[in-house]
Amino acid sequence: MSRNEIIVSTEEMERQQTFAEMVRALPHRPKSYHVVTYGCQMNAHDSEKIAGMLESMGMASAPQREEADFVIFNTCCVRENAERRALGNVTWLKEVRKQKPELLIAVCGCMIQEPGMADRILKQYKFIDLAFGTANLHKLPEMMYELLNGGNRVVRVEEKDVIPEGLPVRRLRHDAAYVTIMYGCDNFCSYCIVPYVRGRERSRDPEEIIREAEGLLESGVKEIMLLGQNVNSYGKGLPGDVSFAKLLKRLDDTGIPRIRFMTSHPKDLCDELIDVMASGKHILPQFHLPVQSGNDEILRLMNRHYTRGQYLDRVRKLREAIPGIGLSTDIIVGFPGETEAQFEDTMSLVDEVRYDSAFTFIYSARTGTRAAEMPGRIPEEEATERIKRLIDLQESLQQDTMKRFVGTEEEILVEGLSRRSEQAVSGKGKHGISISVAGSEKDIGTILKCRVTGLKNNTLMGVREA
Ligand code: SF4
User: Fold this and answer.
1) pLDDT digits over 35-48, tens only?
2) Whose CA is nearest to atom 4 of ligand 1?
3) What domains lie within the chain, and their CATH numbers?
4) Of 183, 318, 396, 400, which is most buried by a Cβ count within 10 Å?
């Protein structure tokens, strides 16, 4: 356990529940809320916890931010444009308040943990009523009470690396749920701000995770997505023989029909995990394995701790053990100093691996990271031209890789009506790829067996099987 790490005590959580009841009793408290979420699944799950806490304070969800008495922005600072977008939207709400003076505005999440941001909010964004960092999330009831009872704006940023347990959660879906297994990251990839704003790695107690999963299964959840910045290093610092592979095996034994996880770091992807996946009954055959670059020198500058060869070896091992596995990745284009030849190495790696999907990004400098100080910034037009070439390549290959599913049997967890037709539904198959089949609203949340019959505009089409 790191020096700064604390597990939030049961007493503290009870104290927060008391504050929630006190807020509920205030006659002038907001009656409705709206959460605006930016960024990754970790943030999406934090927003579910924020919603759960606000409902415990007696507020109801408003579908549109303009309709809510309390609007909270859960921000991301991984890329500069996400940050700019969040601040732009917060400022826009200032105008809404001219018509609705009782409107309360809050900002939370990674952006607030950035050095200097709390001061900036205090001085430059005076219309923000409440701002707090990721380590303060579980204290939302207390902060709301202070805001509503004292009438002064509240800004809190703690440096502690907390593990909050037992927060109320308002899940977005009833059939699928996020389960955070660890927080923070120790990897310090040179371009990434996450370790600075989310703190050092800390893992939840495996017993708490199993208990949560069993509770979800009992409540009818069919799929869980295990979350962490680097799930492969789960367990570091915990007593006993704990690892991600062992946790996954125990979760597989609970009988939850579908288990997914993200994100993984290639350097920590061990054979034990691959073996557990291969022998598991409910662990879905899909893997998100961010490569970031196909060039060894760029990988070194990124502080990724693997080479192109080692990455390709992991892909080979995964495919040998789990034939047909769905593979996805993240790639950064235009890292400082990236030459045309080094970018071509990324193109050739994508050509070699044949991913089912790739999330591609232009490098975004983040103050405080090592890469932000590196020379050789790639001009925007050049980076844009490279990313277009990469996207074109990925799209052309994707058509081909997806064809391997045509004629196979799949199972989808129906997420909703298809965007193309009201007589069809869609959901992700076991390999993480969306499949569309004939159906109606009553199928939402069920697992359907189907046979893939074709491919239309990068979507797999299927027919239902008994
Ligand atoms: S592994 Fe690297 S990219 Fe991922 S969160 Fe940690 S530092 Fe950031």
Assistant:
1) 999 989 999 999 99
2) 229
3) 5-163 (3.40.50.12160), 176-403 (3.80.30.20), 406-464 (2.40.50.140)
4) 183
**Is it the case that residue 2 has pLDDT exceeding 60?**
no
Q: Which atom of ligand 1 is nearest the CA belonging to 198?
A: 5
What pLDDT band is residue 115 in, cutting at 50, 70 and 90? Answer: confident
Nearest to 355 by CA among 347, 344, 365, 363: 347
> Are 392 and 347 a contacting pair, CB within 8 Å?
no
- The reported pLDDT for the residue numbered 185 is 94
Tell me, in angstroms, the distance from the centre of ligand 1 to residue 186's CA.
Answer: 8
Task: Identify any residues that bridge with 134 across adjacent strands, giving them in sequence order.
Answer: none
Report how far ligand 1's centroid is from the alpha carbon of 427 (Å): 29
Identify the pLDDT of residue 194: 92
The rounded Å distance from CA 192 to ligand 1 centre is 6
Distance of CA 455 to the CA centre of its chain: 28
Q: What is the pLDDT of residue 177?
A: 97
- Centre of ligand 1 to C-alpha 221, Å, is 29
Q: Which atom of ligand 1 is nearest to the CA of 265?
A: 1
Please report the atom of ligand 1 found closest to the CA of residue 229.
Answer: 5
Residue 341 gets which letter from DSSP?
H
Stretch (H or E) spanning 461 = strand 459-464
Reduced to 3 states, what is the DSSP secondary structure of residue 179? Answer: strand
Phi-psi region at 365: left, alpha or beta (left = phi > 0; alpha = psi -120 to 50): beta
Does the pLDDT at position 1 exceed 80? no
The more confidently predicted of residues 364 and 421 is 364
| Cα–Cα distance measured from residue 324 to residue 432, given in angstroms and rounded to the nearest whole number | 12
Expressed in angstroms and rounded, the spacing between residue 229 Cα and the centre of ligand 1 is: 6
Ligand 1 atom closest to the Cα of residue 230 is: 1
- For residue 466, is pLDDT > 80? no
* Alpha helices, H only, 280-379: 296-301, 308-321, 340-353
Q: For residues 190 and 185, what is the distance between their CA atoms, to the nearest angstrom?
A: 13
Residue with tokens 């050092």: 200
Shortest-distance Cα residue to atom 8 of ligand 1: 192
Q: Token pair of 2, please?
A: 């790191």
Q: Which of 40, 196, 229 to mutate to test the pocket of ligand 1 (most atoms within 8 A of CB)?
A: 229
